[in-house]
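hey all, quick one before standup. I had two proteins in the batch that finished overnight and I want to keep them in one place so we stop losing track of which output belongs to which input. First protein below, input sequence then structure tokens straight from the run.
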Amino acid sequence: MNTVKLCIDTDPGIDDALALLLAFQLFDGRIVGITSVAGNQSVDKTTANAAKLLDLANQTIPLYRGAEGPLARTSIIAEEVHGITGIGKAVLPQSRRTIEKSPADEAIYEMACEYNGQFEIITLGPLTNIALSLMKHRDLAAKIKKITMMGGGSYAGNVTPYAEFNFFADAEAADIVFRSGIPIVMVGLDATHNATITKTEATDALNEESYTQFIALELFESLFENHLYHSVNTSYMHDPLAVAAHYDPSLVSLSDAHVSIVCEPNEHYGQSLVEFYHDSPNAKVALDCDLDRFRELLFSTLTSYHEH
């Protein structure tokens, strides 16, 4: 039995929401904190969404409010993709949950100290909280066993021709994390662009009589409305693949690489420069995924929510 504790740092976000529903089931009992960050929406909205999702899944995991914006650059959000609330067309009741007093970056350090060496992080948004914690606490890196992150890519971006959104939203933070020495698994666009779900697959798998499955279907449909390509209702499962890869690394093809982040204020800002034949690799980079096994894990987990 895996006893390593886990924090999920996230900016819900439609696919973050699906990833959290996946994680709550896959890592039941191991998640000791959820930390919010600005990214897909403002930190007020991402924190509110995380609280709503915790309520939806009947979870008592502590929730910590994170950074309001990036370390250096002007803040950006992705409202054109994730909508005004951040979770598309899904509508969830306001939460009465109490947000913990510690800010996310301090909470990350406190959790890392408590579970010294037996603590991992999954990041689904910009890396601002992790970077802030590393900047304040020089001993933090040695206390984190692994970070699995959704971000980057070796060949192209999705918000600019060169940069993936999470790294573009705070390149300086990503740079700090990759320089930290923490073991990193980077699940970027190379892999997530092969992790696709179709509208038919989602509607066939999910049962609208279950409230949580109905919300999951609303989240999927929100993605389909924003991610149409080749005239087929299909969407990339960016954040769910990162969660799945942390749960079962064999779902992705990993290659050792040295990753550096472009922080210069030019058209390449936020680009992840991935060198596969480097003397000093600092990450394992996911290049592909086992799509059939990923789909099976995703839907078998989401359909395990049975409440009516």
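OK second protein, same deal, sequence then tokens:
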Amino acid sequence: MSLVARFTRRRRQIRAQRLECRTPFPGYAVIDLETTGFSWADGDRVIEIGVILLDEQGQPTGAWSTLVHPERPVAGTHVHQITDRDVLHAPTFGQVAGLVSASCSGRVLAAHNLAFDSQFLRMEMARAGHPVDLGPTDGLCTARLAQHYLPHASGELEELCYAAGIAVRHRHWALWDAEAAGRLLHSYIAGDWAFGRHWCDRLRRGLAVPWPDLPLGETPLLPRCLPAAGHPADDWCVPDVRQTIQRPPPPLPSGRRRVSASGRF
């Protein structure tokens, strides 16, 4: 193959990738986990989940949170303030696995330190009997993206949010940390007109994760009690959101458009 032919073929490949990355998708599932420690191999488990759902432009469309019974003593209370008493009546991860899967299915998983959260998600799903082929780079990590968008700030969530003009309160509360990471992701998207093109490969990998189709279950969620001042968006923190969490609908026939409402930060 001649040099010109190779160059032309490569241009076509790049163009095809760009076109593919312009295809609309449902959005992002921004997740934060509180755990008993840092190592699944040492027996650590998830004790709280916070999920913020964003559309493709980074605007919020829903959220949920719950404490999780780790089926072992709680540790790390000095960090997350969660005690054994708090999780006594909380659902196990297996009881909310269907809600986790439905929240992530068809969306791009995002987290601050994605490698950490994806590892615990993968191991908890497998322990619940629902293995997921989820790798440490199958999605977006707001800490790693900060090296491009906020190169002069450290990788800490609080410092990055400060650099981006985002208020952060109640650190190490899963819902609030997920919200902070979601706002940070929104700032990246809003400030980069070619965001989808720049991170096309990671978006494709995130959308390709085969989350299992599981029943949502009926076990009540147990969100952590909100502070007296209230959450900045109390309508996000609801005791049970199974009626609003649905798998992405199939695409409409060519020439038709689906219209849906979305929230705003």
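Flagging for whoever picks this up: Residues 15-19, 227-241, 248-265 have pLDDT under 50 and may be disordered. The CA atoms of residues 69 and 92 lie 5 Å apart.
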